[in-house]
Amino acid sequence: MLNDIVINRGKSMGYYMSGIYGANKRQHGDGLLNSVHDMGLNTYFGGASDAYGTPLKQETVKDMRRLQRQDNRSKINESAQRNLSIAMMELDRLCTNLNIPNHIKEDAAIIYRRALRRDLIRGRSIDAFIAASIYAACRMGDIPRPLKTVAEESKRLYKEVSMNYRILIKELGLKPPIDKPLKYVSMLASKLCISRPTELKAIEILKKAGEKKALSGKDPRGVAAAALYLASELNGEKVVQSTIAKVAETAEVTLRNRYRGLKKALNLQ
Asked: What is the pLDDT of residue 135?
């Protein structure tokens, strides 16, 4: 059974020409965007000429300006629209600075809109909720972005962003997957300028350790850092222990403990 009206949320790729549909496929409009406060369905009043370039009468121009003022007022009259206008600008800024993919950005916007509909943001910081939404979307999409990094970029306290994240998890019923060390290997290797063979060796170490159940209950970032340190040692690539610990945002003691645990699990001397 088909619906009478189906909204295509993707880009439209066809147009009419000489009575033939799709004669030449070109993009002529974006789909709905949750990361835009009005979802891309905005109205524009402006100009002093019509679609054919013919100048409009003075009275018509005045009418258009009056309509534009009324349209602008209607967009900011509702508190929810004002909230979204501020929130989506902060979302765009954070996602740009954190190099968040567009599909994760859209997911974060959907999470924030759900929280807004549930009235979870009343009395709380919009910026902190946006940061929490981005972190939740990254967790759901398996994108390695630490909560500390997101909080620092948002200029809000880590404790505040963390609290809002827990509210989202509880009230919206989100079920993010448990982080695994493999998720952080590529990111850490890139920041440390570690060679590709060493990165692949670290992934191999983690897979073997995982098969022996040696990774349970351990901080994934610390384990990933230890695997990279062990792999660099096996491949003869010099990497300073303190540098790895700093990039992985873990203590050197933790790094050494995870390093010894991996060697023991793999029976390496």
From this structure: 93
